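Hello Y.,

Per our agreement to keep a running log of every chain we model this quarter, I'm adding this entry. I've kept the format consistent with earlier entries: sequence first, then predicted structure.
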Amino acid sequence: MDARQEIEALREKLERWSYQYYVLDKPTASDYDYDMALRRLEELEGEHPELVTPDSPTQRVGGQALDKFQTVRHPVPLESLQDVFSLEELAEFGQRVAAVVEETEFDVEPKVDGLSVALEYENGVFVRGATRGDGQVGEDVTENLRTIKAIPLRLPESLPRLIVRGEVYMPKAVFHKLNAQREAAGKPLFANPRNAAAGSLRQLDPKIAAQRELSILVFNIQLAEGKAFDTHTQTLDYLKSQRFKVVPYTLRQSVDQCGQVIAQIGEDRERYDFDIDGAVVKVNSLAHRAALGSTAKFPRWAAAFKYPPEEKPTRVLDIIVQVGRTGVLTPKAVVEPVRLAGTTVQNVTLHNQDYITDKDIRIGDTVLVRKAGEIIPEVVSVLREKRPPDAQPYHLPAVCPVCGAPVERDEDGAHIRCCGAECPAQLLRTITHFASRDAMDIEGLGEAVVEALVNAGLIRTPGDLYFLRLPDVAALERMGEKSAKNLLAAIERSKGQDLSRLLYAFGVRQVGQKAGKVLARHFGSLEALERATLEELVAIPDVGEITARSLLDWLARDQSRHLMARLREAGVNTRSELTPAGTALAGQTFVLTGELTRFTRKEATERLEALGAKVSGSVSKKTSYVVAGEAAGSKLKKANELGVPVLSEEDLVKLLEGEQP
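Predicted structure for the entry above:
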């Protein structure tokens, strides 16, 4: 078998395996077999670049990040649907259809809550994908759509041109996993899977979109050159034969019968791996659709049934408080079991103290609950007339219910947060941050390894890392002696990190990388910093009163003192080698853009900060200089527009050496 034949055979095998896994949900190959076949294909295509084609599985994740999306005009408009909110309104829709066509059947489908897109194929090969936009013009997101493994890159039948419409969504399991990761990283959570899917599909970097594990359900043929169909369901069956993941459908002979299917879809919504925001009723005959036509806004042959928010009364049995990975205290009402939107609800989120206070929710109250966006149970209102006489207003505790450390309210007032440096509830995130590249930079100590160490009871604080024993670490699942030795060596190396990194690793609120460097330069040692007063701290440039108070509070807490003592016991460095900031560039703000050849971006930043300068990530009228390396982009353009002086890398070198550029 020559290279071309082997490449074709590998592509066909990989696409078949992807179809079986991502569309049929019936995998026939192991992850290892898939990965080995993909690696072999990558090797062959690397040796024979002339044989690489756009429909190859290796091209699903590739390309450079874009500056912006290009617009695409849809050859066939992507229409929206007329909403109906009751069976009476649905019956009126049926009457309007019957006035034009008689004895037509209807197709009922769950309405996927995602982002609508059009996929375009030429001679069976995927060439373009675009968002719906306003229905006439959307955005070209081809590279991001290539990363969705449920989208076939080549079809079994090569029509001259085929355009299909589908809904990109984030599977529920992926959504929950992504939010857990974002919570651990201290990032804002996505409100629902639809927002997560939309945000992921509109990433300018396809590699980020690929990490989000999106999927798609196709529900319409917009254009099919060389192919004729009589009914909509024929088109869906054809799309299935072409390896698309197709929306499930049910045929009924009347709109009245459709009501039963709609009710069943509502009951079954939790069984789908995608969220729904209704059900769609469509005339099945394509000839009847043509006779019905469209209004200026909607097709007359379809309607979207929106489920009314189901509200039911239940009683608050208790209010419990959970502490998240970021330390946020989240109250939750334990309620008498009540069935909502197809599931039994026993816990209802209460968000924060302000939410409880505004609605005056108390233990013993009877409350109306519903599912917000069909996902999260929430309290609509309190039925005050049913309140027991002994019900008392509820307030979140003043100390963490997990570790007993003090809690404090965020600056924006939204959340109350545990401040414990060694709080068990925050342990996974605390240690993952402590070991991260910009903090103590412990190679190999990612979240999965941290979780294994925590679950094995080997670490309870970041300080415990430095007392790990080789046999205990090597005994962990998937670790082994060699990996354990490498990890312990990386932990040992981290003892020598500069104080600036240690301060950032502590995770003190308001003390980021920049503040860590400023404080380390100024005080030179952790011991000197511990003796600092509020007045001394606020006198330091770039250290405001909020940062100063947050730091002093952290240093004074028992858990923090225990952590610092544990680190000293282990021999972790608590001094800084950073030279005190000079004054040569004090008061000046620099922005770096493009590729630098004499320095890394980090080295240039440190050199500038050592001379008292500030380094910013954005250009404004207050910027003193923009340093432009090779392939400088939008920041250079903005500097020219604002009249900000631009320096070359050679100019920067002169400036750092005390010469005039």
